[in-house]
From TrEMBL:
GO terms for molecular function: adenosylmethionine-8-amino-7-oxononanoate transaminase activity; pyridoxal phosphate binding. It comes from Caballeronia arvi. Pfam families: Aminotran_3. This is Omega amino acid--pyruvate transaminase. Its cofactor is pyridoxal 5'-phosphate. PANTHER family: ADENOSYLMETHIONINE-8-AMINO-7-OXONONANOATE AMINOTRANSFERASE (PTHR42684), BETA-ALANINE--PYRUVATE AMINOTRANSFERASE (PTHR42684:SF1). The lineage of its organism: Bacteria, Pseudomonadati, Pseudomonadota, Betaproteobacteria, Burkholderiales. GO terms for biological process: biotin biosynthetic process. Keywords: Aminotransferase, Pyridoxal phosphate, Transferase.
C-alpha cells in the first residue's frame, strides 16, 4: 500500500509492538472508521474483526460519544481530580459500578490497562498493610498472562518476549501458576474445556512453598485474549476463588478485554459467576475514544484503606494527572448508556452461537491446529512453519487485510473480537476470508 502522502515521514514515530522496519517498508494506514469498517488511506473498506484492539465494542464513530466529548471539551477541557473534582468523574464512576458484580463498586480511574494493573497491585498491598498484614507482598500471576507493560504488569505477566529484555529489573517476590491451554486434550473445544480445573490446585503448591501470610494477591485474566485466546477450563476460576478466599489472598481479575460485553455479560466475572476482589478494566470502557481505564475494588478493600488513613490525610498515595479526565469521563458516560440502550451485551450473547459455528467451520482448513472460542472471542491456532514461528500467522493476517478484513495475530494464533454490533453476514465474511487466506499460504 502507498501512504498516499508522498511527504509522510514514517521515521519519527517509533511504533509500539510493531516490526518497525517491516512495517515502514510496506505500511498499512487507516484514515477513517465508521460502524464495522475502517477506510484505508487508499480508500479500501476493511471489516474490523478485532474492534480495533478489543476496545471499540459499540462500533466506530458513534455520534453520541463524539458529541459528548466535543461538548465537554468546549465546556471544560480539563480539571484536576487531586483534592478537586468535577461531577462527570462521579457520574462515570457510578455508571461503571453499575456494570460491576455486586459489591465491587469503588472505582479508581486510570488511563490504560497497564495502569489499571499497577493500580490494582498497589491497592492489594495497601489493603494488607492497612489491616496490619504488611508482610503480604508476594504476587502470583500466570504463565502466558498479559497484564500490560508496566514493570508490575510484566512481572506478574507470563510472556517471555515481554520479560526477557527487562528480566534483571522485574518486580521481586512474584510466582506464576501454570497456564491452562492443553491442545493435546482439548483441541477444537467449543466454549470452556471440561478438563484442567485441577491446574488451579497449583496455587496450593505455591502457598505451601511461600506461606499464605506472604502472598498479597493472585492476578489472572478470566479469559486471556492477547496471548492467544485461552478459555478457562470449567471449574478452574471457581477453584482459584475458593483457594484464595481460604488463605486470605486477594483475587484480581484482569478484565481489560472482557469487561463491557465481550462474553455477552457486563464482565467475565458475571459470566462465570465468580466474583474477585478487584477487577481491572480499560479498553471498551468508553469505546476507545479517549484513553481511559479503571479499577473496581470491593467495598472492603476501599473502606479498609480509606479508614486506615489519618484524619484529613491522603489515604492512597496513587493517581494520575489524567485520572477521570473530563473528556474521557464524558465518553464513558455516553458509551455506557449506548451499551444499555442498544442491549449490546445481550446481542453479543445471542450472536455467540453463530460466531462459534463460523469459527469452528475452519476445523480441517489447511494449517489449523486448534479453534477456541467463548462469547464474541475466537482464536485459531495454526501449525508453525519449521524455524519460522509467527511467519504463517503474519501472512494470513496480511492476506486477510488485503482481502478487506482486519484480524489480529499473535505468533501463529489468529484472534477475533469484533465490535458487538457485528451481524451474521459480517461474521460469515470474516471467517470465509480467513478460510481463503489459509488456502493461499504455504
Ligand atoms: C488483559 C490485559 N491487561 C492489560 C492490558 C494492557 O492494556 P493497555 O495496552 O491499555 O495498557 C491488556 C492489553 O491488551 C490486556 O489484554
Amino acid at each position: 500500500m502507498s501512504t498516499n502522502q508522498p511527504n509522510l515521514d514514517l521515521s519519527k514515530f517509533w511504533m509500539p509492538f510493531t516490526a518497525n522496519r517491516q512495517f515502514k517498508a510496506a505500511p498499512r494506514l487507516f484514515k477513517a472508521a465508521k460502524g464495522m469498517f475502517y477506510t484505508t488511506v487508499d480508500d479500501r473498506q476493511v471489516l474490523d474483526a478485532t474492534a480495533g484492539l478489543w476496545c471499540v465494542n459499540a462500533g466506530h464513530g458513534r455520534e453520541e460519544i463524539t458529541k459528548a466529548v466535543s461538548e465537554q471539551l468546549a465546556t471544560m477541557d480539563y480539571a484536576p481530580t487531586f483534592q478537586m473534582g468535577h461531577p462527570l468523574a462521579f457520574e462515570a464512576a457510578a455508571k461503571v459500578a453499575d456494570f460491576m458484580p455486586a459489591g465491587l463498586d469503588r472505582i479508581f480511574f486510570t488511563n490504560s490497562g497497564s495502569e489499571s494493573v499497577d493500580t490494582a497491585l498497589k491497592m492489594a498491598l495497601a489493603y494488607h498493610r492497612a489491616r496490619g498484614e504488611g508482610q503480604r507482598t508476594r504476587f502470583i500471576g500466570r504463565e502466558r498472562g498479559y497484564h500490560g507493560v508496566g514493570f508490575g504488569g510484566i512481572s506478574v505477566g507470563g510472556i517471555l518476549a515481554n520479560r526477557k529484555t527487562f528480566s534483571g529489573n522485574l518486580m521481586p517476590h512474584v510466582d506464576h501458576l501454570p497456564h491452562t491451554l492443553n491442545i493435546a486434550e482439548s483441541a477444537f473445544t467449543r466454549g470452556q474445556p471440561t478438563t484442567g480445573a485441577n491446574l488451579a490446585d497449583e496455587l496450593e503448591r505455591i502457598v505451601a512453598l511461600h506461606d499464605a501470610s506472604t502472598i498479597a494477591a493472585v492476578i489472572v485474566e478470566p479469559l486471556a485474549g492477547s496471548t492467544g485466546v485461552l478459555v478457562p477450563p470449567k471449574g478452574y476460576l471457581e477453584r482459584l476463588r475458593e483457594i484464595t478466599s481460604k488463605h486470605g489472598i486477594l483475587l484480581i481479575f484482569d478484565e481489560v478485554i472482557t469487561a463491557f460485553g465481550r462474553l455477552g455479560a457486563p464482565t467475565a466475572s458475571e459470566y462465570f459467576h465468580v466474583t474477585p476482589d478487584i477487577i481491572t478494566m480499560a479498553k471498551a470502557i468508553n469505546n476507545a475514544t479517549i484513553p481511559m481505564g479503571a479499577v473496581a475494588a470491593s467495598r472492603a478493600i476501599h473502606d479498609t484503606v480509606v479508614n486506615a488513613g489519618a484524619e484529613n490525610a491522603i489515604e492512597f498515595f496513587h493517581g494520575y494527572t489524567y485520572t477521570a479526565h473530563p473528556a474521557a469521563a464524558a465518553a464513558a458516560v455516553a458509551t455506557l448508556d449506548i451499551y444499555k440502550r442498544d442491549k449490546l451485551f445481550e446481542r453479543a450473547a445471542e450472536l455467540s452461537g453463530t460466531f462459534e459455528d463460523a469459527a469452528h467451520e475452519l476445523k480441517g482448513s489447511p494449517h489449523v491446529k486448534d479453534v477456541r472460542n467463548l462469547g464474541l472471542v475466537a482464536g485459531i491456532e495454526l501449525e508453525s512453519r519449521a524455524g519460522a514461528m509467527g511467519a504463517r500467522g503474519y501472512e494470513v493476517f496480511l492476506k486477510c487485510f488485503e482481502a478487506g478484513v482486519l484480524v489480529r495475530y499473535t505468533g501463529d494464533i489468529l484472534a477475533f473480537s469484533p465490535p458487538l454490533i457485528v451481524d451474521e453476514k459480517q461474521i460469515d465474511q470474516i471467517f470465509s476470508t480467513v478460510r481463503d487466506a489459509l488456502r493461499d499460504v504455504a
